[in-house]
Amino acid sequence: MDHVELHEGSRVALLVPSSSDLLDVAMSLLAAGMFPIPLDPRLTSRERERILAGLSPDLVVDTEEQLASMVRRTPDEYRWGLPRARPMHVTSGTTGTPKGVYSGLLTEEQVRALLADERDLWGFCASDVNLVLSPLYHSAPLRFAMGTVLAGGRVVVPGAFDPALVTAAIERERPTTMFCVPTHLQRLFAHWDEVGTPDLSSFRLVAHAGAPCPDAVKRRLIAQFPAGSTWEFYGSTEGQFTACRSEEWLERPGTVGRARPGRVLSVDPDGTIWCTVPEHARFRYFGDDAKTSAAWRETPHGPAFTVGDLGRLDEDGYLYLDGRREDLIITGGVNVYPVEVEHALREHPGVVDVAVYGVPDEQWGQRVCAAVVGRATAEDLAAHARARLAPPKRPKTWHLVEDLPRTLTGKVVKAELPGAELPEA
Q1: Strands 101-102 and 11-14, how do they pair?
Q2: How far apart are CA 393 and CA 357, in angstroms?
Q3: d(Cα 51, Cα 59) in Å, to the nearest integer?
Q4: By CB count within 10 A, which of 97, 132, 204, 267 is most buried?
Q5: How confident is the model at residue 343 (pLDDT cuts 50, 70, 90)?
Q6: What is the pLDDT of residue 47?
């Protein structure tokens, strides 16, 4: 496979651990007008076959030796050159078969607009040192790393996430930027409670996304990192919607911010969120015209897309998320949004983490369940829910668990929660 002839438009699947070589190869392929498809190297053979079948890559790189060989063969003019496309990431697959998000080749004008879009928001510059916490096969960490390199900065890849390794890297490398998910923050704070908090004064940007951030974790993030350095953003594999300084969140707890520059948000009566994007941010699902058509529609502001998330906009344009259409629980004919219930349960001091979901129920159609990590008892939680939630929203079944099954970007894998795959009664 190493000797496959590649050409403009070729697709190259990269199933290797995060490293500077992976970043090098991905950026070099983009500069040559090819499409890297970064994927989790831990995929089972069945998962790998299922995903790659719909992407038809010209080359599959799944060993570090192959990757190193590609680095050695990369022409100098392509290494760190301007990208001519966006990486072809695949959707998370939490609601079905993962799909490739495909931009096609971009014009030079679109490329420069793409780079400016990221640089102007996040301020990437030559003095930046980006610390990579999440796997580079996910879109956000790769985007932050690429933005840093293209601005002349440096990227540090400590390896698989480990709080001790990350802490050592902070002390040694003095990073200026970091993307993370709430789970990373929880683990780092727990580690720092044991060994002490490192000097965080080098950070100018700490951005988190991927999953709801517990209130206590958010407030500690704001307190411990330099003033004005912390952000949250809302996006997906398909595209970016919002960005929100933590100071804005303090004024409007729960918001994920307003539309990013060049974008317009709208919300349907049923709560479905739509976002118009600039030309350089448009996409289609590779090999799936029907799914692409369902994701896009024309608006007065231009083409807009949705990923099926639900939310609401306040009078100042700040977005609040209610979850995904696929996660909606209909119990006794009443719509219940798991995110709303989760937010209420996280207010209990004995709750560390929580996931709310529905399972089939003969009487109600679906029954509201909650899997909870923490020291709270089922009796504590039921009393807490009675004080804060209307009867249909209160979980009928409580599962006290040691941990929640999550992807590496922090999303709960609800199919793996207790009872989630119960057959219809």
Answers
A1: unpaired
A2: 11
A3: 14
A4: 132
A5: confident
A6: 81
Specify the DSSP class assigned to residue 83: P
Q: Which residues of 30-41 are buried (b: 16+ CB within 10 A; e: fewer)?
A: bbbbbbbbbbbb
- How deeply is 315 buried, as exposed, middle or buried, from its count of CB atoms within 10 A (0-12, 13-18, 19+)? exposed
Helix (H), strand (E), coil (C) string for 3-19: CCCCCCCCEEEECCCCC
Contacts with 414 (C-beta within 8 Å, 6 or more apart), sequence order: 94, 327, 355, 357, 420
DSSP reduced 3-state for 152: coil
Handedness of CA 118, 121, 127, 128 (dihedral sign): negative
Has this prediction a pTM greater than 0.85? no
Describe the strand order of the beta sheet including 11-14 as a list of residue ranges.
35-38, 11-14, 59-61
- Place 422 in a pLDDT band, splitting at 50, 70 and 90: very low
**Positive or negative, the Cα torsion across 247, 251, 256, 261?**
negative
Report all structural domains of the chain as residue ranges with CATH numbers, in order of start.
1-102 (3.40.50.980), 328-416 (3.30.300.30)
**pLDDT tens, 231-273?**
999 999 999 999 999 999 999 999 999 999 999 999 999 899 9
Please choose, from the candidates 214, 142, 147, 202, the residue with its C-alpha nearest in 3D space to the C-alpha of residue 171. 202
Q: Residues in the chain, how many?
A: 425
Q: Tokens for 232, please give them.
A: 């949250």
